[in-house]
Write a structure and sequence with these properties.
RmlC_Cupin_sf, RmlC-like_jellyroll, dTDP-4-dehydrorhamnose 3,5-epimerase activity, binds dtdp-4-keto-L-rhamnose, Jelly Rolls, six-stranded antiparallel beta sheet, dTDP-4-dehydrorhamnose 3,5-epimerase, seven-stranded mixed beta sheet
Length: 167
């Protein structure tokens, strides 16, 4: 029998770190230096965001939906005449890149499993949170928005909401 000094395959089904609240849960599946793979589950109506990390903890995100549907939102808070862009993302959309200068968030149109790879470690001390829920509720007729206490007390950001047409 061959002696193994380490397992040749390690399944990441059991997350080493899990955070749960009334919105659902977050699992940190893998973390090594500045590279993090996470998955979150949200019940229908949850809104997470808008979040952005600032220097020295900039964070590019590569996101996808495993199951369910979301409206995804981004905006550059530094643009004086900026807009909040949104688009629907489903499992068929595939992976989507969110640049580090953008504040990002999503609304769960139904129960969703959201997976994201972060190029840049989590740093709560350098995280900005922007409150846009009222604008989104009015612009897109969203109902039953469930936010964390942190997101409810984010910096209010007032700007137009525009649909992004994929080409
Ligand atoms: C995201 C994250 C959270 N946490 C902890 C902090 C807190 O106790 C708990 C919940 O954190 P949050 O409320 O910030 O989780 P959440 O609202 O899901 O935050 C996420 O929102 C979406 C829109 C993004 O773009 C992500 O980058 C991330 O900011 O999990 C970590 O330890 N590491 C992490 O990477």
């Amino acid at each position: 029998m061959v002696e193994l000094s380490q397992a040749p395959f390690v399944r990441l089904q059991k997350a080493p770190l899990t955070f749960g609240d009334e919105r659902g849960r977050i699992e940190v599946l893998y973390e090594a230096g500045d590279v993090v793979l996470k998955r979150s589950r949200s019940v229908k109506g949850v809104f997470r965001g808008l979040h952005r990390q600032t220097a020295p903890s900039l964070q590019n995100k590569i996101i996808r939906i495993i199951s369910g549907r979301i409206y995804d939102f981004v905006t550059d808070p530094d643009e004086p005449d900026g807009v909040i862009w949104y688009r629907e993302i489903t499992p068929e959309t595939g992976w989507v890149h969110i640049a580090s200068n953008l504040a990002h968030g999503f609304y769960a149109l139904e129960e969703v499993e959201f997976e994201y790879f972060c190029d840049g470690r989590y740093d709560e001390a350098n995280e900005e949170s922007y409150f846009v829920a009222d604008i989104l509720r009015d612009s897109l007729s969203l109902k039953d928005m469930l936010l964390s206490a942190k997101d409810r007390s984010g910096t209010p950001l007032h700007r137009p909401v525009r649909h992004f047409e994929d080409t």
